[in-house]
Design brief:
The chain has 517 residues and is of the alpha/beta class. It has two domains: 346 residues, Rossmann fold (3-Layer(aba) Sandwich), CATH 3.40.50.1820; 153 residues, no CATH class. It has 15 helices and eleven strands. The termini are close together. Strand 8, helix 10 and strand 9 form a beta-alpha-beta unit.
Length: 517
């Protein structure tokens, strides 16, 4: 088991970050009568090189000033120069239709032995973005801290990094994004990996080659995608060295049930809209008309709203509510106690924000969903029984959620799941239910679970990270109080918990885990 030495500077860095905000055949030709492009082939070969960063230049990009550079030098100490290339490759959409996608290929080089020769590959899946133009290869892009962390933690330490943007983003020709579609998104990741391998070695770094080790990781949506990709590679007999999915909605059906039972997560209107749109494109039966699910004021055009090319605030434009998923009027008197729920108390304010008069989902649809959940309960929520998805849900959306739920496999490669147990955005029940499923079905599975928000035990290899996370949380709360917060900083910690606080600490845990192989 790897051990982690955690510098205090990363605590400060994490707090700084917290302020930032199918079933179709793969060879379908779309009716053109011509052969579809080969999945995983490069659209542009060789891929274009966007930028080169020396260790000093990377620190300058990360830190933006002398203090930031000093902190990041202590935390990451980059060894390698990295070339960032823009991948464009052929893949498929949720219906098996040929399309293209893009992503980043980060290749290390330099005199340090860790920066050349046969190097391990990290295949990385990013978190949810509402921005159609999102490009993880643009390290200088606004709000691209995830790409910068990738560069610092992995590429500058000698890993070759492959990070897709996903179909439906950047230069992709797909008109929608197959959000949390396990089949399509794992194919997209595998196609990006194939395209990247065909581009190696690059002319800019001819001494850096694929060393044969493959690590898979990702955060939030990307945690789910990373796990789905590991499952797909394992099923096809391909070798994964180790994986580190982080804070993902793996138990998707149980998570959605929790939301409909009133435990409305942060960013729920955005995530729900992406999810319904993606499944409607994939399966065609989630609704007959958008008004079957969405309030009329939001229904028009909602199927193509996200990801959006509009850089403005969708809530301010009246296209989506910022928080309110459900009406504050119960859909039936029987559900008054969960409109909203008041337990657990620490998350009750988050749940309450998901209810109001400016709601996204019509009450009749919430009622129909809850009635189906009562008739066909998930074994993981609201009561844990067998921990499995519902056997035969009748609601079309719940059927799609079951199809894409990951409680149906067990890893053979070493796997670390990292998350925070108080996460208000992607609930920890996802990690707990995967842990329970694996323990019940394959007790010897090589799985490590890290709750970054737990107290270290004796000899805990991630104890430094857990202590650092607690210090970062306390510092974030104290900062909010200084700025006038009257709740002890609780709301600010909740707002920044998922992306700003948990993400860098879990990434550090995954980095430490991968170093053991």
């Amino acid at each position: 088991m790897p051990h982690s030495r955690f510098p205090a500077s990363l605590i400060i860095f994490a707090v700084l970050l917290s302020g930032c905000g199918s079933n179709s055949d793969d060879d379908k030709d779309g009716g053109t009568g011509t052969a579809a492009p080969v999945r995983g082939s490069l659209v542009q070969n060789p891929p274009s090189k966007l930028a080169t960063y020396s260790p000093t230049e990377l620190l300058a990009t990360l830190g933006g000033g002398d203090l930031g550079q000093l902190l990041l030098q202590l935390a990451f100490n980059p060894k390698c120069t990295i070339d960032v290339h823009q991948l464009q490759y052929n893949t498929v959409g949720a219906g098996g239709e040929p399309t293209t996608a893009s992503g980043a290929l980060m290749v290390p080089s330099g005199s340090d032995p860790a920066c050349q020769g046969g190097r391990p590959i990290v295949l990385y899946a990013h978190g949810t973005s509402p921005d159609r133009n999102y490009n993880i290869a643009n390290l200088n892009g606004s709000n691209n801290s995830e790409a910068l962390l990738l560069a610092a933690v992995f590429a500058a330490q000698g890993y070759i990094v492959v990070a897709p943007n996903y179909a439906g983003y950047d230069s992709s020709t797909l008109a929608y994004h197959p959000y949390l579609n396990a089949d399509q998104q794992s194919k997209d990741m595998i196609d990006a990996l194939a395209a990247a391998r065909s581009a190696l070695p690059t002319s800019a770094a001819p001494a850096t080659t694929d060393g044969g080790k493959l690590f898979i990781t990702g955060y939030s949506q990307g945690g789910y995608v990373a796990m789905a990709t590991q499952r797909a590679l394992q099923a096809s007999g391909q070798t994964v060295t180790a994986s580190g999915p982080m804070s993902g909605p793996y138990a998707l059906a149980a998570f959605s049930d929790a939301v409909f039972y009133g435990q409305v997560s942060l960013s729920a209107p955005l995530s729900f809209t992406l999810l319904v749109s993606g499944y409607q494109h994939a399966y065609g039966n989630i609704y007959s008309a958008p008004t079957d699910i969405f309030e009329a004021k939001y229904a028009s055009g909602i199927g193509s709203l996200l990801p959006s090319t509009d850089s403005g605030n969708l809530s301010a434009q009246g296209k989506l509510p910022s928080d309110q998923l459900f009406s504050s009027t119960p859909p039936d008197p029987a559900y008054a106690s969960i409109t909203p729920p008041t337990t657990p108390a620490n998350l009750a304010p988050v749940f309450a924000a998901g209810f109001g008069a400016d709601n996204l989902i019509i009450n009749s649809y919430r009622l129909a969903y809850l009635q189906d959940a009562a008739a066909h309960p998930d074994g993981g929520f609201p009561t844990t029984t067998d921990g499995l998805p519902a056997a035969a849900p009748a609601n079309a959306f719940r059927q799609a959620l079951k199809l894409n739920d990951l409680r149906n496999w067990t890893p053979t490669a070493p796997t670390l799941l990292c998350a925070g147990s108080e996460d208000p955005t992607v609930f920890y029940l996802n990690t707990q239910l995967m842990q329970g499923y694996w323990a019940a079905n394959t007790p010897t599975a090589p799985v490590t679970i890290v709750d970054i928000d737990s107290s270290p035990t004796g000899g805990d290899p991630y104890g430094d990270l857990k202590n650092g996370f607690e210090a970062a949380k306390q510092l974030a709360a104290a900062t909010a109080v200084v700025q006038g917060a009257s709740d002890g900083g609780a709301a600010d910690v909740a707002k920044n918990y998922h992306a700003g606080l948990v993400a860098p600490f879990c990434l550090a845990a995954v980095d430490a885990f991968f170093k053991g192989f």
